[in-house]
Each structure stands twice: as C-alpha cells, then as structure tokens.
Amino acid sequence: DVLCSADDDEYRSLDRYFWAFFVLWPVLVPLAFLALLLWIRNDVRAQRVGPVALACRFLWRDYDPRFLFWEVVDLSRKLFLASLVLFIDSEHGSGKMLRLVVATVVSALYLAALALARPFKRSDDLHLACIANLLLTCWFVLGVTIQLCESTAYEDMCSTLVGLESARRASDLVVALAAAMLALSLLLVLFKTASAVSVPTIRLASTGRPPILELPRECHFHAFISHAWGTGQDQTHAIVRQMQLLLPGVKVWLDVDNLDDVGKLEESV
After folding, report:
1. With contact defined as beta carbons under 8 Å apart, do 99 and 157 qualify?
2. Going by C-beta distance under 8 Å and a sequence separation of 6 or more, which residues neighbour residue 197?
3. What is the mean pLDDT of each run of 10 residues along the chain (269 residues)?
4. Pairing state of beta strands 223-224 and 252-253?
5. How far is CA 241 from CA 221, 249, 258, 259, in A?
6. Which of 4, 202, 243, 258 is deepest in the core (most CB within 10 A)?
7. H helices within 199-254, ranges in order?
C-alpha cells in the first residue's frame, strides 16, 4: 500500500520539510565551511592562529596548508554518496546499476586524488583514508555484482555475466569478500598501531602524539648541525641519527650527508 500520495496535504508538508533540510545540510553547511576557510586561510598559512581559526581548527588541523580546503571536498563527496546519488533516476534507480556505477567512479577518482595529492599532515591519517575509500570502492563494485545477479533481463544472467549460479551465491561471495577486506584492513591498522607504539618517539605532552614536522616552502631542514672537523664529526653523526630515530621525518642538515664539496660549506650555511 502507498503510505502517502503526492496529492495528500500531509505529504506536501513533509515535502516542504525535506527541501528545507536539504538546503540546510547538503548546501549551506559546505558553503559555511568554505566561507570559514576562506576567512582564516591567510592566518593558518602564516601560522598565526587567531580565535576564529582556533574555534574551527577541526576543518584544517589535519591537512597540509596547501590543501586547506580538502575538508570541503571530502564533505561534498560524503554528501554525494550518502544522499545526492539518490536523485539519479529517482523513480527506478534502486533497481538499476547507474547509481552504483556513478558511486564507484566517484570513489575511485577520490582515492586516486588522495594518493596523488597526499593532503594529510600525518601519514597514518592518509593510509587510513586510502584504506576506507578502497573498501568503499570495492563494496560498490560488489554491489554491481549483486545487481547483475538479481536482474531478470534475460535468463541465466548471473551465470553468464558473473559466473555464479544464483543471486544467493553472489550475495554469499560478496559477504565473504567484504569480511576478508575488512579483516585485512583491521590487521593493517593494528600493525601500524603496534609499530608506532613499539618504536620510541618524542611526543608532545599536550596531545600525546608526535609533533607535526611541517616546513614552510622556503625552508628545507628542521635543524642545522655544525661541528669541529677534528673532534666532533662522530658525535654529531650520532646525534643526527638519534634525532632521526626519535623524530621520524625530521630533516637535519649535516655536512657528511648533505655536502658534496667541502669548499661549498660556507655557501650552504
């Protein structure tokens, strides 16, 4: 039975509520985030965090300053996959593959953009985002498989196109593959976590996390180590290696590592 009709007055009132909330969340919220980031972008890039930038730091603190607006891009992707994709063939789209195909393409393109742009400051955030989007893309592809097997366009479509006897077999295969991918992802996350815990590193007392070793564009090193050639070479070499162990990703200038010609020492300094 049809619960409501387009001619029903109650339905019309619900329709108005729908469009009001649609404008409020999928439209105004990304625009508000974009406006805030445009307002604070100069302060964040100059590392002068004021009250407004501090209040909305959840929008930018995880990203490289070059990709300050990535949160808006990610939010738009989520809104598209969670809601806007339903507007594709709104009457009969649930029984067709177009939505799944579009969602798969969007997820794959976003995964490629993540891998190429590397917008996160921390590598573990990047790895987690890539894993999540890879799983999402795989699940959309598996959804296409189920859709093919459930189709009745012609006889034995599941066996002919997919190679399975029935839609039930396809569903079982999808569940098994999804569980395997999820288990593999969890093992990878646990391995990364265990590796990070087992290796001693310097951490900030305020957050308990390693410091973010970002550099301005005009800088190439975090530290410069100088020494007397006659007596200090071994000691400075040991200091730099210890710093690199305790601060993964730190860039330290040391003559034996970064200088090809001793005559260019003064120029390098």
Report:
1. no
2. none
3. 55 72 81 91 78 85 87 92 84 78 93 92 83 86 81 72 74 81 80 68 72 71 74 76 77 69 57
4. parallel
5. 15, 12, 14, 17
6. 243
7. 233-246
